[in-house]
Amino acid sequence: MSQTPAFYVGSARWTRSLTAVVDVLRQQLARPRRNLPMLLARSYGTPHDLGPQWRALLATAQDGRCFWCGQPMTSHTATLEHVLPYQGPWWPRLSRLEQLLSLRLSHAVCNRAYRTWREGQHAARLTHMDQMLVRHIQRIIAAQPLLQLYEGGQYHPDRPASSG
Predict the structure, then answer these.
(1) pLDDT, mean of each 10-residue run, the chain (164 residues)
(2) Where are the beta strands (DSSP E) in the chain?
(3) What is the pLDDT of residue 44?
(4) How far apart are CA 131 and CA 133, in angstroms?
(5) What spatial distance separates the first Cα and last Cα of the chain, rounded to whole Å?
(6) What Å distances lie between residue 105 and 21, 59, 97, 127, CA to CA?
(7) What is the DSSP letter of 90?
(8) Of 97, 116, 134, 144, which is least packed with CB atoms within 10 Å of its CB?
(9) What is the pTM of this model?
(10) How far apart are CA 121 and CA 62, in angstroms?
(11) Could you give the maximum distance between any two Cα atoms of the chain, in Å?
(12) Is there a contact between 68 and 83 (Cβ–Cβ < 8 Å)?
């Protein structure tokens, strides 16, 4: 990690990142017999309660690079980053899909630095940033019919289509 990460998540940066994650997710959802429906439906009990499938999806979407510093990561150096903090006010109000879409992978040192950066910010700045992040996630879901179906629990690729 040679450069200092920029921790304020601006609109353009978040949109690019979110689009990359959703593109990889849509490719996975289009494949028959994937386990993603179970991952999307499962409750999210702890900040580390995430299987290797979502980590692999994030690694692909992030091109194997840290969300914060942009440097390459390995499976041993990647940590799960809650861009919208797990202990924050937004997390319990988010759906499972919204929670998953707010996660990224980062180096452990970048993850800790982000937490420290947040602690030093004015609450209004963080509220504005977090609201913007949530709005982008909700817009992406609203623009993707397949994600809307998963969000509403209506899409089950392993069930035969009903006739009628």
Answers:
(1) 67 90 85 63 57 85 94 90 89 88 93 93 94 93 82 51 38
(2) 78-82, 103-107
(3) 56
(4) 5
(5) 57
(6) 11, 7, 17, 22
(7) S
(8) 116
(9) 0.81
(10) 26
(11) 59
(12) no
